[in-house]
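Readers of this paper often ask what the protein records in our data store actually look like. Such a record has a labelled line for the sequence and another for the backbone structure tokens. Nothing more is needed to write down the fold, since each code stands for a local backbone conformation. The record that follows is passed on verbatim for readers who wish to inspect the format.
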Amino acid sequence: MEDVLRRVDTGELGDPLPVLAYLAGQAVEIDDDELNGARRRALLLVAAGGDPHRELGVDDRAVKAIAADLYTEERRELLARAIDVLVLQVRELPTAREAALFLAADVDLAWRLFSLALLAEDLAE
């Protein structure tokens, strides 16, 4: 994990916000059947929106749909706590620290970024 966080800090992995949201999201437990169903519904929205290979954004309709489908207060809290842990882990890494603090201040954005990563993971396959 330390190596990944260093790579996030150097910019090697691109924008640190989605990467950190995805890493923090690993602490969120989601049943496979529920996740697969939410992904299928979101993929239908991606396909209906035109080119299914286009780059998705955090405000894309499909991303908001999967975020809403998977959202619970408990999951949001798990994500928030995991981001707090990341803030401590990256305290010596200025870029990653700034990104982690930004996510900690906007957990709703972090949830959508995590949801985007879950959808992108499925699209990559």
